[in-house]
Every structure is written in structure tokens, then in C-alpha cells.
Amino acid sequence: MTVLADEPAAPAECVNRWQQALSRAFARVEVAVPDPAAWTASLSTHRLGALQITDETSGPATVLRSTGSVAADPRRHVLARLQLEGTVHVSQDDRSAELPPGSLTFLDLGRAFRIAVPVPQCARTLMVPRPLLGLDENALRQFTATRVDPGDGDANALLLPLLTGIGREISGVAVPVQDHLARTAADLLAVLAADHAARLVPGTRPPTQSLFDRITASVEASLSDPDLSPQVIADQNGVSLRYLHQLFQRQGSTVSGWIRGRRLDAAHQELARPDAARREISAVAARWGFTNASHFSRAFREAYGMSPIQWRGQARGRPGP
Question: Could you tell me which residue ranges the HTH araC/xylS-type domain spans (predicted)?
């Protein structure tokens, strides 16, 4: 996805376009710009399996992920923001940090945060599902919005330049190589996060996530893709199709059954939200990878004992039709 917010348009429209671009790339945010008339920005995003890499440039602005935005769009990925040019200020969980060029910070989409951009800047953000970092909730809450510098230990000095190089080159290589680089980048982020957390949070252990956990985390990030299949998942995670099926069988499930269950659970949660009354059932189904609304309704009834419409009505405190 590539979005240019510096195309000719009224100043207010440029800011609105930028807010929509950031919200599509990451999660719902609110944007304020001090001087819309003299402001430009651009954004380019590449989705590679469970990893998303986004390059952005912008003029001075404030980006806010409020508690209301979190409630309305409850994505729970983690952002690793690598500052390339310009200095910005980030805050989350009653902490704040200044990010000069070359530094990195982690932000959790599951909680409110703020990014203040006082000067024109350029940044590269890697977005991954929480489980891929392999850290518990306590550790994650204690090191977001803290600065990671290349000089803060051997791991940082080695890994930050590698992440920078992978993010810069990944879009220009062949697709099979992209998949391998994406997995490598996710692994580097997990190691970097674990090392950073271990220095800030006593008792934090390195990630020991199983292959099954890593695969299911990558699938969670792709539930909305109607073309998601066992073969696609196997290719993205560098395992054979046969071995993928064996991993799920050991957990007492099948690949397709696990995907369907997670999609239904996600739709079930979305339909229970207060604003679900304004959404078409077919739109919710499509959002979670169901291309056939009738099939979705049958699967939903089998799983929960009622139709999606009945569940939405019950969740809002009134009986369904």
C-alpha cells in the first residue's frame, strides 16, 4: 500500500487523508497539524506475512492513539519505531522518550500513546503481533516508550543496523527472499525487545516461544485475508505443508479448523461492540475472511447456538428477531 498525502488538495483534506492513511496502516489514530497550509506527508507500507514495514515522512504534527481509539479499533500489535531523520517525542504508560535519528522505541497499540513531531521527520515502523515478541504483559507494559540506542549494549549495536538495513532493502528483493527476511526481522525484533526488557525489567526471560505459537501469531495477523490457506501459512513460515498439519494435529486441531474458529471468535467479539448496530453482518463476515455471508451465518450458529443477528441484539441488551 502506498499513500501520498502531499498531492494537491485543501489543507484540511491533506490532514484528514494523513489520519486515514495512518489508521489503515496501524490502527485508529487522531492527527493534529499546527500549520496545515504548509504541511506535507507520505507513507508506504509493505505487508510480509506477520510483519508489516511502513516508511513515513511528515511535517510537524501530533499523532494520538486515545483510549477511545483503542476501544473502537482494538488491534493489539506492537510497533517498533525506528527514527531515521528528525527528532520526535513519544509517550505511553506515563513514560516519555525523545527519539533522535538512529534510535528506536516500542509502542503497544493495545494502549493509548502519543507521538509529537516538532520538526519534519522520517521514520520506519515495524509492526508485529504481540506474541511474536515472546514477552509477557508485565514486561511489555514496562518498556514501551523507552529509547533503544545503538550504544546501549552489544545486542543493540549489532541488531539496530541490521533492522535498518532489512527494512530498507526488503522491498527490492525477490518474494521468496522477502519472506525469509521478514522472518529474520521478526526474530531480530524479539531478541532486541527481550534484551531491552531484561535491562529495564528484572527477571524478564528471553523469548522461548514454540514454533506453533509463532505460526499461530502470524495467522492471527492475517485472519482478514480470504486467501489465507495452509499452503500460504506453510510458505510464510518456512515449513512444509505436511509438517504444518502435524503441528496442528498435535494440538488436537486442524489448520483450517483453527483459522475458522479464530475468525468466528473475532467476528463474535466485533458484533458485541456498542457500534456493531451500524454494521452489516456481511461486512463483518468479510472483514474476518468469510467471503460467503450465508456460510458465515451457518458456521456462527453452529459455534454459538444463535445467528449473528441474534447475538448482536443480545449483546446490545435486547432480544434478537
Answer: 213-314
